[in-house]
Amino acid sequence: MHPAPSVIIFTTFSGLGFGLLAWLGLGLPTVTGWVACGFFALAYLLAVGGLAASAFHLGRPERALKAFTQWRTSWLSREAWVSVTTLIVMATYGAGLVFFGVRWSALGWIGALLCLGTVLTTAMIYGSLRAVPRWNMALTPVLFLVLSLAGGALLAGQRVAAIWLLALAGVVQILTWVRGDDALARSGTDMASATGLGDTGRVRAFEPPHTGPNYLLREFAYQVGRRHARRLRVIAILLMAALPIALLLLPLGHAVAAVAVLSHVVGVLVARWLFFAQAEHVVGLYYGKR
Amino acid sequence: MTQLPSRTDRKLGLVIDLDTCVGCHACVISCKGWNTENYGAPLSDQNPYGAEPSGTFLNRVHSYEVLPDHGAAQLVHFPKSCLHCEDAPCVTVCPTGASYKRVEDGIVLVNESDCIGCGLCAWACPYGAREMDAAEGVMKKCTLCVDRIYNENLPEIDRVPACVRTCPAGARHFGDLGDPDSAVSQLVERRGGIDLMPEQGTRPVNKYLPPRPRDRLEREVDGTALFLEPVADEPSGFFAWLDKALEKI
User: Fold this and answer.
1) Do A282 and A194 touch, CB atoms closer than 8 A?
2) How many distinct structural domains can be found in chain B?
């Protein structure tokens, strides 16, 4: 799949933002006044900024409000509802902390749950696509949720939770790669089933429909060099989980924590780039591409 | 509504004969022509006269080489357009309701004025049947020429999809695949029509007729020997006289 910057930024930063909001909703840390204002501003910047980035890949962004109508079947529509509801609930909860210095804990709990719901709906947009076997697994939403909680814990200054969640995120990420690598083969879709010509013999793409490129190839047939992919995976795991954990184990200062956050964010961006770039869409088979 | 109808009154679709298709791409051109001038936004081209021309097409013809375990390779031309699936994954993922499947005839359509161009339906389609138009920013797909098949301004013979009407080899057939007695259903029955990617669970309406096995010579023949073989084993007439005369010398 084409790794469009808009969707990479969208999933990474909205995941972080909603992760932070979830921890704030739980009252970890319980902050009020200006400190709360700072935390909520950062969380909203990430969450809303991420959501806004997703609008950049729309062909007709001016009609975006119509995306609220089909929640019965579409995960994208569900995401629109859950994310907006979450932002409203958490804004109310945040207003209590910032302006009145009170924590409406029930509202915070509901908000935290909604935050996870938002991340889940985002992940299911990808996880529900059967045509992309690498995404079409239960591990996809698990990975998105764990990463969001880990990044949120890191931003919320929850040191112990962050260490455990980052480690868990690293494990889930590696599992996702291992399971994902043969997902296309396990799906049973290959050139033989795509063309229905498998009974006659071995099928090879002889001529593409056009000599030039097209939307399908640009959007779905992105290929990463295997060697690069392996290197990028190592970089992603080191930056996303290993380095932040190591830094958190050091005596914690704000500067060290900032480096840990930065490292984590860059790591997740690399992993998210791979999430798209390595995903094989079965339509590639019609073009003789994996 | 992006909820799929539990059943449709008819299942209009195409039957594509891979045995007959000669790979001329006439269906590609007629499709592009008709659908640029009629229903919805035109199918745009980008850089059409430049080094890397690219454009929106609702129908594309691939060519595959099939190599059996024994014998010669076979070239199969393979037209591909929307299969108007019964369990169309492109419809259910649409967040705006722009994509829908019609109850009356099963055609999968896009209401372009509701489409936000998110591209998710194209991601969900395993067949690559949907293409985002780069100029219009909305999703384009085969309409089964919905503006031809019911169009009473056209002569009756033209009330079929443009690709079917134009195919010079008669490799494309249009009809109701929900009716077991229709000509297309009979054809599918007779020729063992198949679904593409059945494991994807989309239940496509369009069917493909696999290429029939090619005639095979009973024994291996030396190409040159074919021409040098004697025309007649038992000579008669002039040759019989010549044969006898030569033997006597």
Assistant:
1) yes
2) 1
The pLDDT tens digits for A187-230 are: 999 999 999 999 889 999 999 999 888 999 999 988 877 778 99
Distance CA A77, CA A96 (A): 29
Residues in chain B, pLDDT under 70: 216-233
- We report the CATH number of the domain holding residue B75 as 3.30.70.20
Cβ atoms of A203 and B66 within 8 Å: the answer is yes
Establish if B173 belongs to a structural domain: yes
Interface ipTM: 0.94
Chain A, 145 to 204: residues with Cβ < 8 Å from chain B are 187-189, 191, 193-197, 199-204
- Mean pLDDT across A34-46: 96
Residues B93, A75: C-beta atoms closer than 8 Å: yes
Tokens of A269: 């961006």
Interchain CB contact of B123 with A (< 8 Å) = yes
Please name the residue of chain B whose CA is at the shortest distance from the CA of residue A221: B128
Q: Is residue B4 part of a domain?
A: no
Q: Which residues of B touch A55 (CB under 8 A)?
A: none
Contact B164, B14 (CB under 8 A): yes
Minimal-distance CA residue of chain A relative to B18: A197
Interface residue of B24, B45, B62 to substitute, partner A, most A CBs within 10 Å: B62
Average pLDDT of chain A, as a whole number: 95
Which range of residues forms the domain containing residue B25? 12-247
The DSSP code for B96 is S
pTM of the model: 0.91
pLDDT tens sequence across A255-286: 899 999 999 999 999 999 999 999 999 999 99
Whether B118 sits inside 8 A of A67 (CB atoms) is: yes
In a domain, B58, yes or no: yes
* Residue of chain A nearest B68, judged by CA positions: A201
Q: Are A150 and A168 in contact (CB under 8 A)?
A: yes
Torsion of CA B167, B171, B176, B177, to 10 degrees: -150
Position B3 in a domain:
no
